[in-house]
Design goal:
Two copies of one chain form a homodimer. Chain A has eight helices and five strands, in the order E-H-E-H-E-H-H-E-H-H-E-H-H. By secondary structure, chain A is α/β, with parallel strands linked by helices. The first copy, chain A, is globular and about 55 Å long.
Chain lengths: 234, 234
């Protein structure tokens, strides 16, 4: 039996993180998937995450409760309306109200805690610098700075490097891909995107609104990839 | 009325963070205290944090639930026994089992989310590089790396700096102080240390064990400061 390496994979239930999980499995890692119940309005995404974790044979799927809504400040965790029907230019022009304060920082910190307990060195997150909807914590500079910090923060970083072990790495395999490329790559690996939910404002049964930034980017991706869009729209 | 600056202060209910809160108030900030229910065995510390926040006139005190115990791996969040009666040399020799994986990274990330919503730029944490009980995430290098990351992670960091606003700062006012100096400074500012709990393994009514690393460092601090120790021991 080969000695499979462990990886922690942040899994939202969306299209990007499902693709990341498929890439991680394809690379031969044992995948420990991590999702968050963080006060988001669209909790159907957690059901999607569970389906994806099972379909792509994650060794484990943990859902951690964390009350980001206690701080307020985002359309995704409060009553502020989700913007609809914006063009790509408008999305790129500013940090949108769907931005959850410090979300990727918080999620990666918890992934780091999980990795440390598992003695895993590899953390995967599906951030994307192209179709990234304007979030500051999706940029390569942020990821690089987080990685430096992570290696100073942890027992694994400190003792591991002293003992010559590999450093902790934050992997961002989608960082330079556009949505169409992500969809094409995942489809090659057999990802069933009908299981995933990208919508910021889905109906109670999980049907997508088709008009928020995330739905618009996703639709455009399937069109550009020349693949059928399996998303259920309202 | 003066325009008071807002600060986020991590408040554990222990001696160090109570001193930090007193320093923050003395410096004229409005203090927004933040504590965590993170699966710790010693939840009496949250009652202590609430007492301290009130006594030192924090504007707000939020307690956020976060289930670090779901990951396991620490004597503070699991059934692993807390070590007792160790000398200072033994404490310094290794990262102890009371280390909670990536704890300060997780706590500072949530403080960053809170600061972002408050539009605060100043985050205070009572870490200490001297009597630090061997935790990697209490070192100055870690704090500096976190600060760099925080300014790349957030809307406040990105838009604020573009607009010429002050960067986000992680303040560590106790970093170079020993326990005796911390106690002396806090006593000058009127901190009632009888309200605080440092013990890793307190009794149900909050009485300290007197023998864990944290109790031993605290006792030594009062002795060296030449001040009476108001701690209730079992």
């Amino acid at each position: 039996m080969t000695d499979q390496k462990k990886a922690v994979v942040l899994l939202s239930g969306g299209l990007d993180s499902a693709t990341v999980l498929a890439l991680v499995r394809d690379a031969g890692y044992t995948a420990h998937a991590l999702s968050f119940r963080y006060g988001q309005r669209h909790v159907v995404e957690l059901e999607a995450a569970a389906r994806v974790a099972e379909a792509l044979e994650a060794a484990e799927h943990k859902i951690i409760d964390i009350d980001l809504a206690a701080f307020g400040g985002s359309a995704l965790t409060s009553d502020i309306p989700v913007p609809k029907g914006r063009d790509t230019k408008a999305m790129e022009a500013e940090i949108p109200i769907t931005y959850v304060p410090a979300r990727n920082t918080v999620f990666l910190s918890l992934a780091l805690a999980y990795a440390e307990v598992l003695e895993a060195r590899d953390i995967f997150i599906g951030v994307n610098a192209l179709d990234y909807s304007g979030y500051p914590d999706c940029r390569p500079d942020f990821i690089a700075a987080f990685e430096v910090m992570a290696n100073l923060a942890t027992r694994a970083g400190v003792e591991g490097q002293a003992a010559g072990a590999a450093p902790i790495r934050i992997h961002v395999p989608l960082i330079d891909m556009n949505k169409a490329q992500i969809i094409a790559r995942g489809s090659d690996l057999g990802v069933d995107y009908g299981m995933t939910i990208s919508c910021y404002d889905p109906g109670p049964a999980g049907a997508a609104c088709g008009a928020c930034d995330s739905c618009l980017l996703r639709k455009k991706g399937f069109t550009e990839a020349g693949l059928p869009d399996p998303t259920r729209y309202q």
